[in-house]
Amino acid sequence: MQKILLLLLIVIFSGMTVQATTYSCRDKQGTLFITDNLQALPTECQGQARRVESKDPDNLNYVPAQADPQGSGDEFQQVVRDAELEQRQKQAGIERLLQRAKQLAEQYRQAVQKKNNATRRWSYDSRDIIQTSEVQIGKSRDGKQQLLTEMSEQQVSQDDEQKIISWLDKIAD
Fold first, then answer.
1. Residue 152 CA to its chain's centroid (Å)
2. Cα pseudo-dihedral 145, 147, 149, 151, rounded to 10
3. Long-range contacts: 21-26, Cβ < 8 Å, 24+?
4. How crowded is residue 113: how many other Cβ atoms within 10 Å of its Cβ?
5. Which residues contact 20 (CB under 8 A, 6 or more apart)?
């Protein structure tokens, strides 16, 4: 019974310490401000904030989060809406690039398959099929280069870039 009680007390009183980055600054009156949010510091302190180490003893003042300035709500909401619209447009552009990469890879695969089938089953029409397939293969390769160029001009995340390139790798150079 004592062992269980001792174990229970150990579990209750043992805690994990969590460390967050804390910043401090003194204003002109000598008041010390400490926060984990740099934007919550007074404007006169924002360029002078320093990182607080756990060994720094000092008197502490709590800095509450600053309220949004009056009259800026509509402007802020418009900025947020504009940023969301820009993000949706960028994502739609990336989706279009990915869709084009899939289409080019499928077009290339079909053209190679038609060419190989025409070569194996040689007939009167085989020459035309092979020529048409080679034109399609060339268009797929040109489309691949164009898509790679467009992708390099846009800011595409590495994950999205890898998805697009994985599809384009199916098109032999």
1. 16
2. -150
3. 21/51, 22/51, 22/52, 23/49, 23/50, 23/51, 23/52, 24/49, 24/50, 24/52, 24/56, 24/58, 25/49, 25/50
4. 11
5. 36
Q: What are phi and psi for residue 144, nearest 5 degrees?
A: -60, -50
- Assess whether pLDDT exceeds 80 at residue 70: no
Q: Which of 127, 114, 109, 171 is nearest to 145 (CA)?
A: 171
C-alpha distances in Å from residue 166, one per residue of 103, 171, 172? 13, 10, 12
pLDDT cut 90: percent of the chain above it:
24
What distances in angstroms separate CA 73 from CA 37, 65, 86, one per listed residue?
21, 17, 20
For the beta sheet containing 50-51, the strands, ordered from the edge strand earlier in sequence to the opposite edge, are: 32-35, 23-26, 50-51
- Contact, 36 vs 14, CB < 8 A? no
Helix ranges (H only) for 18-125 are 73-120
Can you tell me the distance from the alpha carbon of 30 to that of 39, in angstroms, rounded to the nearest whole number?
A: 19
pTM score over 0.85? no
Joined tokens for residue 73: 């709500």
Tell me, what's the pLDDT at 146? Answer: 92
**Rounded-to-integer distance, Cα 67 and Cα 40, Å:** 9
